[in-house]
Each structure stands twice: as structure tokens, then as C-alpha cells.
Write a structure and sequence with these properties.
By secondary structure, this protein is mostly beta strands. The protein has helices at residues 2-18, 37-40; strands at 20-34, 44-45, 51-57, 59-73, 76-97, 102-125, 128-149, 155-161, 170-181, 186-200, 203-204, 210-212, 215-228. The chain has an eight-stranded antiparallel barrel with strand order 1-4-5-6-7-9-10-13.
Length: 229
């Protein structure tokens, strides 16, 4: 019994000796997308008269935030972050007519800002760190910006807010990434946020019938730098 108590005390003291906090800030760019938006966009097919095709691409944004890490063991830490992140997706629509030989293009950006809070398990290997964990995101508002070129070489821009009930206010995702420390305080950070919840919720009519199934998983590639105090 005495040996057991001594062993437990030594373990607690050893863990306490390694316990420490790391604090830092990070900033970087986003390449964001929402799956299946092009497939759900209303299409148009009138044979040779008029056809419309919609595709989607990743949207450029940025992220910035701060973090605190608690080292529970020499090589293992638990990191909590609070990050602002501009996300969304870009869609491009082409309307053409093989009969009249005419065509028109437009693009729409879905812009949604989030406060993301990941909780990450973080492994340290010299100057390399690898991390993984869940993340919850709280939507701070969003809009759509549609750009249509005109015949004079200019363009018409229409900006409309996203209605609060048209998309999910909370986003759940899974984060995986790595960091490389370049100096004692400065390093680079790369991660991928894998969405697990639908951005567009299921819609029902007054009779409770489903008019649209939920769809749209978010995916965000984030590249940036961090500074650790």
C-alpha cells in the first residue's frame, strides 16, 4: 500500500512538472466550399432553345483567432481556440442557346461568417505538431452576392442577406491539421475542417410534409501563420 501511494504521488508530481500553458494567435486564408449546392440550384433545359448549367468552386476567405493550450504530458496538449472564419461557396451559372447562339454568365457568392470553437488534441514532435478534434461553429450572419456582366463591359451586382431560417445557425465539423514551428515563437499552420452537419436544413410545409431534404456539408482548407507567446 505504501509503495502504491508513493508511486501515485510520483506520477502526480511528474505530471504537474510538465503541465504548462501555451498561448498564441493565428491568422490565415480560407478555401471554403459547401457540397451539392450546384446540384440543388434550379436548372433550365428547353432543348435547343435555352439551357442553363450551374457549377461551383471554392470561395476565398480568411480566418483569425487565438488559442490556449494546456500541456497534460510532455508530448500531448489540449488546445481550445476561438476563431473568426469567413466561409461559403461560389457558384457559376451559364445560360446558353444553341438555337440563337447567345449566352450569358453569372456568379453568386454565398458569404457566411462564423465564430469557430475547436477543441483539439495536439501531439508535439520537436518542431512539428499534429492535431485533431471536434469543432462547433456559430454563424454570425451571411449574404449572397450575385454578379451579372452587362453588354457594355461592366457588371451588375446584387447583394441580399441570407434569411436566418434558410441555413443552419450552428455548424459541426471535425478538424485535422499540423503546425511547423519556424522560430521560438513563429510558425505555419495548415488544417482542414470537415463539415458533418447540413448547411441547408430540411424544410417542411404547414402540413409537416418535407419540401426539401437537408443538404450541404461544409469543407474549409485553412493555411496561415501563428505566433506563440
Amino acid at each position: 500500500m505504501k509503495k502504491l501511494i508513493i508511486s501515485l504521488a510520483a506520477l502526480v508530481m511528474a505530471t504537474g512538472a510538465f503541465a504548462q500553458f501555451n498561448f498564441g494567435v493565428r491568422v490565415g486564408g480560407n478555401l471554403a466550399s459547401i457540397s451539392n449546392v450546384a446540384e440543388k440550384a434550379p436548372g433550365l433545359d428547353l432543348g435547343d432553345l435555352v439551357t442553363a448549367e450551374t457549377t461551383q468552386a471554392m470561395k476565398v476567405g480568411f480566418n483569425a483567432g487565438l488559442y490556449a493550450e494546456y500541456m497534460v504530458m510532455p508530448l500531448l496538449g489540449v488546445q481550445v481556440e476561438a476563431n473568426f472564419s469567413s466561409q461559403g461557396v461560389r457558384t457559376n451559372s451559364t445560360v446558353s442557346s444553341s438555337l440563337f447562339g447567345a449566352g450569358a454568365e453569372s456568379s453568386t457568392n454565398y458569404n457566411i461568417n462564423y465564430l469557430n470553437v475547436p477543441i483539439l488534441a495536439k501531439l508535439h514532435f520537436a518542431n512539428l505538431r499534429a492535431f485533431v478534434g471536434p469543432q462547433i461553429g456559430f454563424a454570425l450572419g451571411g449574404n449572397t452576392v450575385t454578379t451579372v456582366p452587362d453588354k457594355d463591359g461592366g457588371e451588375s451586382v446584387t447583394k441580399e442577406p441570407l434569411e436566418a431560417d434558410s441555413y443552419s445557425g450552428v455548424d459541426f465539423s471535425f478538424v485535422v491539421g499540423a503546425q511547423v514551428k519556424l522560430t521560438a515563437n513563429l510558425g505555419v499552420d495548415a488544417r482542414y475542417n470537415i463539415g458533418v452537419g447540413n448547411f441547408f436544413p430540411t424544410l417542411k410545409n404547414d402540413e409537416g410534409e418535407v419540401t426539401r431534404e437537408g443538404f450541404g456539408k461544409q469543407g474549409v482548407v485553412q493555411l496561415g501563420v501563428f505566433y506563440e507567446f
